[in-house]
Amino acid sequence: MSPKLNDFSVGLLVQMCLTVNELDSAADLVDAMLRKRPQDAACHAVRAFLWHRGGDARAADESMGRARAIDAADPLVCYIAGRIAAQKGDTDEAVRQFSRTIEGLPWFRPPFGLLDKLLFPGPDYMDLLEQIHALLRPRVYLEIGVNRGKSLALSAAGELAVGVDPNLSRCSRSSVSHARLVEAKSDEFFARADLHAVLEGRPVDLGFIDGMHLFEYGLRDFINMERMCRAGSVILIHDVVPCVPVVGARQRTTRTWTGDVWKVLLCLARHRPDLDLTLVMTSPSGLAIVRNLDPSNRVLADKLPSILDEYTAMTCPGYNYAADTGIRVIPSGHAGLASLLKPVVEARAR
To answer: Is residue 59 assigned to a domain?
Structure first.
């Protein structure tokens, strides 16, 4: 007598079959479900994935067509369509389908991992930060947004490191014992009367902005940090590539969230064309490298209210928002990173 299985049990068995590449057994389970529920869009999508795994593209397309005809917006249908598109090498279609999955199932982890592999295949941002520190060897380092202290720990070889965060309770003090920690919001820190004393009257060589994930905070942090730099300094900005539009929204609804910090780059490209902007596609959410700084420039500060009006309501178009903006976009691990920073290194040596 065959046991009666609920949907969860069938789904678990199908996953187990896929894990050991038992495609025929998985197909038998799904076909049995479809005989009972021929209008189940997710079952048709799973069948499409099995056909795809088995190498039958025509049957896969037919099954996916049936799934979409029943419910093209079903998050699981979108997820499986995204997986098939990713395996076919169609990144844009995969991103579109995973985006729909995340909108419907914001807690569902798998599409985030797959998007990470698709969009950010090289070294992650911590590896990139370590490389930048090794290339630039900053004497004075300023970090906004310390969190657990992992990025701040990379500054140990310098002469002065300052980390700013409104909540330092998560920070591993032992790993950042070389640094001066300031428990304050970034706006409060930059407004301090003794700010220059905290930095010992020295310009910042390398700055890292990884604070509040909202445009206005990121932009103010850049404006304030640039004032503390010099012409040959470099500012890095984290969380500038939302993998899908909902991740780049101002209100957090997903497990992974960049907020609308990405707008800072668009703003700099438009209102500060004198800056050199590079966007590195590094996991998990991109890193911007800003060069050719001008501490005396007041354009952004003077226009701040109108700039906030211009950008705050803008919605995220997607991970490739920087296309055709003049912003240089490179993959993580790009061989040109050293040559990109070479002028900074040479200028400091003179």
So the answer is: yes
> Could you give the number of structural domains in the chain?
2
51, 56, 252 from 266: Cα distances, Å: 43, 44, 21
Domain range for 90 is 7-119
Mean pLDDT throughout 167-179? Answer: 94
Q: Is 105 inside any structural domain?
A: yes
185 and 330 fall within a common domain: yes
251 and 203 part of one domain = yes
Question: Percent of the chain scored above 70 by pLDDT?
Answer: 96
98-115 pLDDT, tens digit each: 999 999 999 999 999 999
Which of 119, 134, 164 lies at the terminal end of a domain, its last residue? 119
Asked if the structure places residue 1 within a domain, the reply is: no
| Average pLDDT of span 115-134 | 95
Residue 2 resides in a domain: no
Look at residue 140 and tell me whether its pLDDT is greater than 80. yes
> Looking at residue 42, which CATH number applies to its domain?
1.25.40.10
What's the chain look like in SS3? CCCCCCHHHHHHHHHHHHHCCCHHHHHHHHHHHHHHCCCCHHHHHHHHHHHHHCCCHHHHHHHHHHHHHHHCCCHHHHHHHHHHHHHHCCHHHHHHHHHHHHHHCCCCCHHHHHHHHHHCCCCCHHHHHHHHHHHHCCCEEEEECCCCCCCHHHHCCCCEEEEEECCHHHCCHHHHCCCEEEECCHHHHHCCCCHHHHCCCCCEEEEEECCCCCHHHHHHHHHHHHHCEEEEEEEEEECCCCCCHHHHCCCCCCCCCCCCCHHHHHHHHHHCCCCEEEEEECCCCCEEEEECCCCCCCHHHHCHHHHHHHHCCCCCCCCCCCCCCCCEEEECCCCCHHHHHHHHHHHHHC
One domain for residues 54 and 133: no
Do 180 and 168 contact (CB within 8 A), yes or no?
A: no
The predicted structure's pLDDT at residue 170? 93
